[in-house]
Amino acid sequence: MAVASVVFAAGLAGLGLSQGPISVVASILMLGVGMGVGFYGPAFAVLVALHGEAAKKPITAVSLMGAFGGALGWPLTLAMIEAAGWRGACFGWAGLHLLVCLPLYLTQLPDGRAGPRPSAEVGRVRWDGRMIRLAILFAGAWWIATAMSAHLPRLMGRLGLAPVEAAGAASLMAAAAVAVRLLAFLTSGRGSPVAVLRFATLLHPLGAVVAFFGGRSLAGAAALGQGAGNGLLSVASGVLPLHLFGKENYATRQALILTPARFLQAAAPLSYGVLLDRSAGLALLASSAVCVLMFAMTFGLERRA
Q: Does position 110 have pLDDT exceeding 70, yes or no?
């Protein structure tokens, strides 16, 4: 996580100093490396190492804080751009990584607190049917999340909203993610995580149906459904491996489960953009069909002794 902060800062500083397409692309690639190394996965692994089976509520809390970060990130960036230009915004975020995140990681998470790590951890993890189901499910979830993040304002426009209205509707996605994660935090430990996961896979299709058939006035339902569903799925990506398999080899198992999702994420903006070029209905139908597949993957996930 500390390395990720340095990589993020380097990528943002490089973007702020960029003078042409080559340096821009190189900096964005570096940001992608930081995302792969330092997002929820490592944070969840640290929490499981520190708290064991009791890590479900801390995982939900970190996801909730991440949702607030997602909701505040765009307006904060816009404020930085208005005050210091887009290059200044890049330098501002780079400074926050180095002056806030990095010291917190180094001082609040000393290596010894997590205890010894099994030397043969990687070799002890074997793929089984439940891991395959989770890998397929989260690959679909991350494909939709990345596609919607890239194209949601445009999708709202194709559903009949003006640009300002589309931006406002898109902000509902972040608000819904915050709301459902807060609810998950307040009700942590109650109910079945698998049942919550199953419910989450249906929220995007429900919002898509309401938006498509409800007309311009209900177009924002697609953003609400996506935000709420993805908010719960982000929590589930940390909680489900712990619930189903326990704390042993958690970090390695979670990394394996989420690896296919990284590849689909990379293809999401282009593939969804092609569908959206044809029609908003086709794009929503495709993402909803992926959710139906995700729903099917929730069956057969049982906790074993």
A: no
